[in-house]
Amino acid sequence: MSRKQHDESPFDVRQEGDLAPARPKDGLDASMRAALVAVAATTAVLTLGALFSYSPRVALGVGLGGCIAVLNLYVFAKIVDAFIGRRGNAAPWAVIAVIKVVGLIGAVWLILRTNVVPPLSLTVGFSALIVGITLGSLFGPKPPDDHEPRSRP
């Protein structure tokens, strides 16, 4: 693979002798990507179901809750990757974690305070996080085994 192709590839190329699997440049492994896609797909299905079953206002609430769930999971994944990967200083990620929590609570408070959408529809949308993570774990790619099986004496 030429150097130009390597720079254009979204995945890091393993060098000969490397033991670690190649990881995407954004730091998210295949399991986390599957969970994110499943949460987004669940949000879409729930939003369409609310649109056809109830009203556009309820569907907006479900969609907002689902979007908050997807963003929450993505930022959480980046924060965990930064702490576990120990690449560079983790202090900025600690600040981002606090901002994430304050932003999440503030956004939900603002949405509920202005009565833009019904609270139950927002909750249904946010439940896409639970359903999506479950589906992504069950049907997504399995993480590689890190350990060689031991032979018993």
TrEMBL record:
It comes from the Bacteria. It is found in: Cell membrane. The chain crosses the membrane at residues 34-52, 58-77, 89-112, 118-140. GO terms for cellular component: plasma membrane. It is a multi-pass membrane protein. Residues 1-23 are annotated as: Disordered. Pfam families: ATP-synt_I. Keywords: Cell membrane, Membrane, Transmembrane, Transmembrane helix. This is ATP synthase subunit I.
